[in-house]
Structure formats: structure tokens, C-alpha cells
Amino acid sequence: MTNAATDFDVLIVGAGISGIGMAAHMQEKAPHHSFAILERRENLGGTWDLFKYPGIRSDSDMHTLGFDFEPWKHEKSIADAPAILEYLHTIVDERDIRKHIRFGQKVISADWRGGDARWHVTIENDEGERKLLTANWLYLGSGYYDYDEPYDPGFDFGEFEGQVLHPQFWPDDLDYTGKKIVVVGSGATAVTIVPSMADKAAHVTMLQRTPTWMFSRPAKDGLANFLRKVLPEKLAYRITRFKNIRMQDFAFKMARNNPERVKKSLKKAIVKSLGQDYDEAAFTPPYDPWDQRLCLVPDADLFEAMNAGKASVVTGHIAAFEKGGVRLKSGEFLEADIVVTATGLKLAVAGKIALSKEGQAVDLTQHYYYKGCMFSNLPNLSVVFGYLNASWTLRADVNSDYICRVLEHKRKTETDVAEPVLSPEAQAALQEDDIFDFSSGYIQRSKAIMPKSAVSYPWRLNQEYVTDRKIMKESPVEDGLMTFTRMGANATQSGEQLQAAE
């Protein structure tokens, strides 16, 4: 460990969508603050640079997965990873953010010390050398899943002699031409991989334990492309973004309020793609739409691969992996040269960073979310955990904007510490909510590591972007819960003394 500490106003962890978005927002809305971005990998882009499996793409439209400050200019609104990376690189270079990114720097731990109002952050480079950085504010844009290991369902591959791959660690040189492939899973990753591999493979089977609700839409947004031709680019983008946000919100609430109507609509669309004789059971989940995230099938590519005989969907439970394929409990045998385990991600909180306060370990499961971006009784710390029912970037944008407001308020009032204070008495009176009202496996498996969420705002991670945007943009940062104090003291800008918060 080197002794020399480097000081920043803000340390941003992660150079993916969340981190890049915060840097861009700071340049515009908190320009007096210094910052650095710490990225453990050698490239920016986060998810969109890490995953290399065939066909990797967005599963929501780029007019909402794109930032509010940078129009999406590509023709396709359902974009592949290279297009998304191009978008992010353009933002980083045009705004001169790249010079602020420190690649190959993994954040190991961060300790808050009130005496100097700083986070003392230990980072490690690729050679295992450690260094200390300090920053007044720590902004966690490190994503939501474990970069080191995926979810392991505990398969025993027994006598299977073929290749076994997980989408999170896809080999660069895989040749699957003429191969028989079984993709285990039915989520967005599986639905992407199956049609993408079907062009070269002999056959691709999607093996699902439980069906998923699917819907198809064009990869190109006709209205967006028309508006870009007749209106200024930024105006066209704002109109399309507004339209898509409202459509997402309407569709989600319709699914929750009238699930039977939505089921009929989804089934009708699948009949249109696969014909009256399709296997209805394979596309009828035992849960309502949006109890889990809907799977997008852009341009009906999965259904087209099925109609061409290049792909199929099988529902069943695995009995064993045998020589030459997969045996189901029904007795059916699926031939396979390659098995892809698209069985989901393993979630991680705060980038698996060991957080502490005055040397005492912080257990985030004992803290409540504050406005979906901070935590109760933890100073100068913010995080991005995106929406489950809308595009990730929508939350990243509102959180970045709000934290910039907090940073500017601290600067103008000459205070050093911003902390959402929740007294033990007030916490005891809170009614805890189910933080994620979704039945998806990766969500249910992660609840034990998640911070708390209350029924009442602001002590919650809300799932309504339209509501959040209005509150975060218009409500005062001094709301009676957020305290602003000076370093080493509990004095506000007016000189009043505050009772020290635990």
C-alpha cells in the first residue's frame, strides 16, 4: 500500500452506463467538482463490453436506454452491443471524459471518516498492487451483478463430452457451424442467443423449465426515424423518448391491473407469428405478465428461426447430462454438441466493495434506500440500481441529476457532508416493502443481500420512473431528512447545531 493519497471531490466506480452518465451530468451540472472514474476492466462499457455471446443486444429501446442528454442516432432502436459501445465511446470522447477514467483499477474497500469528511478508498491494479485514494463523495455505478461468477444452478455434466459455455464468459473463437446446440434457460439472454446461433448451427433448442411471456416488436422505430428526418435531432429524440416512456409505463400498469387482457394480447401476437398449431403450453407461463420481465423478440427473429426449422423450444426438467446430449425427466433426449447455460446472473450489491464507516463494517441490508439513490445514515454515498420494469438508464439519469443538485447545494452552503438521517424511532415506525415485487429467480435469490425498502417515499427503491423523475427534479434537497453539515462538526451553514446522527 502506498502512503500518498490522491484526493477527488467525487470518485465514480464503474465506466459503464451509470458511471459515464454521472460524469457527463457532473460536467454540465456540477462543474466545480473534480472527479475520477475507476474501472476494474481495461475497457469502458460495462455489460456491453463484457458480454460477447452471439446477438447480444438491448432488451429495451435505445430512446430510453440512451441518456437524456445524448440523442440516439442509429436507425435501429433495439441495438446490438457494438452500436451501444459506439454510443458510449462517442459520449466519452466528445465530452473529454476519457482522461478521467483509470482502467484496471478494482475497488476493494471504502471507509468513511468523518474527521476529514472523506471516503478512504483502497484500489488494486492488475498486478495486485494497492493504493489509497480519498474522495468526499463515492458514487457507485458498478452495476447489479457479479462480474466474477454467474449464477451456478449446480448442474452435473456427468458423461457429456461436448462444450459447456456460459454467456458471461463467451470464448472469442467459438465455431458452432453445423453443431447441435441446447441453450438452457428462457430469459432475455436465451431468447437472444437462440435465433442468433440458428443461422450457422445445425439446430438450436431452447430448453426451458418454465415458459416466459414474450412479445415481438420491430427493431426499428418507424416514428423515431421519421421524426429525425423532419425535426431537429434533439427535439425528435425528446418526442420519441417521451412516447416510449409513456408506453412502457402504460404497458406495465395494464399488465398489473388487467393481466388477463394482456395475456390474450400476447397470445394473439404469438399465434400471428407461429400459427394456430403452435405449442401454447411452451409460451404460457404460470405467472402473470410483468410478474417477471417480458422477453423482447425483435423482428420476431426467434419465431422465424422456429418456423424455418432451425430452432425449437422444449419445456422440461433435466434428468442428466449424458454422452451426446441432455436427458429430460420425461425421458426425451436432446442431442447436443454444445450446451449453453443461460441460467441467469448472480446479483451483487455495491460492486462487492467492503464498505465501512469509521472502521466499522457497513451491512447494507440494515439500511434503507433513500430516494432510490442513497442509504439511510450513510454520508456522501450514492448508488445506481436500475428499474426492473423500464430501461436502466432512466434511473441512472435521475440519480445523477439529483446527486449533482446535492453536490451543488453542499458547495453553495459550504458544507461537506450530506446524510439522509433515519432515527431508530422513525425506522421502527416504517413499514418494510417487498423490495422487488418480481418472481424472477435472480431477483428472489438476491433478496437476502439487498438493502431495505419501505412502503412510503422517500425510504424506498421505487419502480415508477415518471413519479421518481418529478420528485427528484422538483423536491428540495433539504427535505427535513437530508442533513448538511461541515467537516468535523454538526454545524449547518447558518451556524445552528444539529444533534449528532448515529
What would your notes on this structure say?
- This protein folds into 2 domains: 6-147 and 347-485, FAD/NAD(P)-binding domain; 163-341, no CATH class.
- Helix content is 29%, strand content 21%.
- The chain has helices at 17-29, 47-50, 62-65, 81-94, 188-198, 222-230, 233-257, 259-274, 301-307, 392-413, 424-429, 441-446, 465-474; strands at 6-13, 35-39, 101-103, 106-113, 118-124, 130-140, 163-165, 180-184, 203-208, 214-217, 295-298, 311-315, 318-322, 325-328, 333-335, 338-341, 354-357, 360-361, 369-370, 374-375, 381-383, 417-420, 482-485.
- Strands 1, 2, 3, 4, 5, 6, 17, 18 and 21 form a 9-stranded mixed sheet that branches. Strands 7-16-8-9-12 form a 5-stranded parallel sheet.
- Strand 17 (354-357) and strand 18 (360-361) form a beta hairpin.
- The radius of gyration is 24 Å and the shape is globular.
